[in-house]
Design a protein that fits this description.
mainly alpha; Rossmann fold; Tyrosyl-Transfer RNA Synthetase; 2 domains; three-stranded parallel β-sheet
């Protein structure tokens, strides 16, 4: 199980860091991929009018990238109200100091505030409960494998603690919730066109939905080898800040094409301008089928809504079953199960 907050169109960093792994996983596991719009409200509640459009943009990017609703369950978090109900139940089991020391929460507060006083003003009840909602996202579908980078393993410990506590209190020797484990993924470091980390808020990204012309224009602005002054100067691929790392992603290392680019740069057979033109062609060729798939759904928004509603219904069926088991284990009647 995994998800993304709908905060706008996705860029190449999202694709190579997350989506390529999801596309592989969906044929290997019973996969649940959620557009987590309630999570977006934890930091974007003042811009709630943007969330619905962003949900559609994320869905378009996922479908274009190859997420297949026939192979996985693709759904919108708020389309599965059982997640919120489980979140409420789990919050009753959660100690205050658990959420206060959770790394995910600390990272969010650091991004939003520059000092302790501002952090107090920014920290809402909903943001404080973010880790519990994240656990509910996972446990509603009894997620066993969660795709993360190794630096994010601690984020799963919170959900594991809640699963253990619930099982200990109510399981009577049975495992109601499996303890979610990380499915480590490698996230290549993809810089923005300015040499900094690629990010939507930095206006330095190349989006999956960009046209070929937009992509070429952005690649043209990429920071290259700052030590190379003239075209006749030999280049240094190890000092090339943006284009060369991109070549390392798009071309198999040590392949003839990769060696050709490296040799032409380091022997001044080609200048940075032409090198970036060639890179733009490479990027556009790679993403042409992805953009074509995306555009089909752009032109048929009704079909896009059908995909999301179908995924919501599939997800609700599973989440309802989980919730029924939760109430049974707690020896409580769920008065809403017949709704």
């Amino acid at each position: 199980m995994s998800g993304m907050r709908p905060t706008g169109r996705l860029h190449l960093g999202h694709y190579f860091g997350v989506l390529v792994n999801w596309v592989e996983f969906q044929s290997q596991y019973d996969s649940y991929f959620s557009i987590v719009d309630w999570h977006a409200l934890t930091t974007k509640y003042e811009n709630s009018q943007e969330i619905d459009r962003n949900i559609l943009e994320v869905a378009l990017d996922w479908l274009g990238a190859g997420i297949d609703p026939d192979q996985c369950t693709l759904y919108v978090q708020s389309g599965v109200p059982e997640i919120a109900e489980l979140h409420l139940i789990l919050s009753m089991l959660t100690k205050q100091n658990w959420v206060e020391r959770e790394p995910t929460l600390k990272d969010m507060v650091r991004m939003l505030a520059t000092d302790e006083e501002e952090a107090k003003d920014k920290l809402t009840y909903g943001m404080l409960g973010y880790p519990v909602l994240m656990a509910a996202d996972i446990l509603s579908f009894k997620g066993e494998l969660i795709p993360v980078g190794k630096d994010q393993e601690s984020h799963l410990e919170f959900a594991r603690n809640l699963a253990r506590k619930f099982n200990s209190l109510y399981g009577q020797g049975q495992e109601i919730f499996p303890e979610p484990k990380p499915r480590f993924t490698e996230t290549p470091l993809l810089k923005g066109i300015d040499g900094q980390k690629m990010g939507k808020s930095f206006n330095n990204d190349i989006k999956l939905a960009d046209t070929a012309e937009d992509t070429a224009a952005k690649v043209k602005k990429m920071i290259t080898d700052r030590t190379r002054i003239a075209k006749s100067d030999p280049g240094h691929t190890d000092l090339c800040e943006v284009p060369w790392p991109f070549y390392n992603i798009f071309l198999p290392k040590e392949s003839d094409a990769w060696l050709k680019v490296k040799t032409e740069c380091e022997t001044a057979q080609i200048g940075c301008v032409d090198c970036k033109k060639n890179l733009a062609v490479l990027i556009n060729e790679y993403f042409a089928p992805i953009r074509e798939r995306r555009e089909k759904f752009v032109k048929d928004e009704a079909q896009l809504y059908k995909v999301l509603e179908h995924g919501n219904q599939k997800a609700r069926k599973v989440a309802k079953a989980t919730l029924a088991q939760v109430y049974e284990a707690m020896k409580m009647k769920n008065w809403s199960l017949n709704r």
